[in-house]
Structures
1.
Amino acid sequence: MGKPSRQRALADNEAKAYSRTIRVSPQKLNLVAQSIRGLPAEHALAELSFSRKRIAGTVKNVLQAAIANAENNHQLDVDRLVVSEATVGKAFVMKRFRARARGRVGRIHKPFSNLTVVVREVEEEA
């Protein structure tokens, strides 16, 4: 018995990887995600390898996971993969404080982000 299986949310030529609670603000993470949207997977990996942003290594790991999911779980051709989506979401925010002058408090927000990378297999053009 049990519940009926749910329809697959992605198309047959797509694969996804998801990372939760990345320790960077969504605004900063979106700058890196924006640089790989629409690129072929091979070029996106090269872009992330040589990026000067600290978080680029984490984004590269998520992209590699999406490529591995496409190859192993969905039997897609790795050479024809393109980053179709790279979405950034807001996770929780740790709130800290720092003592300031005259008994006051300076609030410190430490935001976390979520990242979803979807790769799609495209047909080669003649």
Note: The first strand starts at residue 14 and ends at 22.
2.
Amino acid sequence: MKLAQLFVVSVFSIAPVLGVAETLELSPSGYGLIQFGQPLRVAEVNLNETAIPKMRESACDFITFKRYPKIRFMVEDGIVTRGDAIAGVRNSAKVSIGMSLTKVKALHPRIRIEPHKYDDEGHYLILESSDGRAAILFEEGGGKVTGIRAGKKPSIEYVEGCL
């Protein structure tokens, strides 16, 4: 009887910790509680937080959330379409900033490689979602990954941010 009581107490004492834990991984579909393709107002409700900046300058802008300080989210006409990550953000492809092009190609032999728009020696490394409507994209220069972004097409393909 005491063992059963101990089990119940143990489960209930760790349950809140398990409920709060959130696996954060950038993928073609989203990051944390944010899904690419959802209205910004839904993301704000899900996070119980207002995006920064509150006032946006155009139909396309980048915003951040205090909860996710290492990701900038692109918002187009009120819809979250993309996330740009800095070093240290996990992603579904298991590729990190600084990883060699050789290692990325070994991890993902079918990755699409395209020339970089501004770096004659650089590339865009693209892993599309199964439906082809989204992707995770890595920028590469000097043989190393220098940037990571993921989201919906065509937003993921914008080289200079909002167009």
Note: Residues 137 and 157 are 8 Å apart (CA to CA).
3.
Amino acid sequence: MDMEALMSQAQSLQNKIAAAQEALGQMQVRGIGGNGNAVVTMTGKYDVVSVVIQPGALEGGAVTVSQYVFDAYKDAKEKADALIEKTMNEVTGTLE
């Protein structure tokens, strides 16, 4: 393979990766904590879009609410990680 073809292939891959990263910024995942008492929504680029706490969760006090939110964040991050891996594998899966 000549250098020009290799550079063209690299540029094409770079463009596909950039497009995938932009798409990830538009995708959203939801993490749930405390059996639905807290819900964190984030993008595929880890930007938190919203945090929703059910009114009944407040009865448990600040420590409980904090744990619910933390658990919801962890769940959302795990889902974002999986989404990122899937999306990027679709783009780079052809690499050997």
Note: DSSP finds two helices and three strands in the chain.
4.
Amino acid sequence: MSAPESALVVLVPAAEAVVAPFRARYDPSAALGVPAHLTLLYPFKPPDQITDPVIDGLRRLFAGFAAFDFILNALKRFPRVLYLLPEPAEPFRQLTSAIWQLHPEAPPYGGRHQDVVPHLSLADRADVATLERVEAEFMQGARGRLPIRARASSVTLLENLTGRWQTRLTLPLGPSSQARPGAISPQA
């Protein structure tokens, strides 16, 4: 098993019905318990370093961001990744930047990418032929179901202590921010 890790994400339950069949087959994170999401910061901190003061700082940070609506409509690619691009993308970038400013020791994606592009992955770690096939399948399967309309109203702290990702807590965006303990899913 790898070292315990954590991530800050915006869950997108509105996308599950459309993306779940593809993520289940082509995105390894789905098999590890990660629902449809847009990553704000990964890796974050080791779970044992996410103390009450860290959570309080995140709560205060997210209280300064209003909830916002977005759509998922445009299908894009990175090398080895097929994803849906959120529109607008800027609020996700602003959240990522603010978290990183608060925790400079945790750069997005470990500092591997110059530009952080908000995205909801459909296929990850796939070759070009697979990405082309998944793109064609998705466009056929999603016909009449796009755009996906969603609302970002909270940030979820996910952690992986056992090889499966679980929700540790959810922090709402906006001035009434109060952390809600996450529902812990059973171990698989």
Note: The longest helix spans residues 128-141.
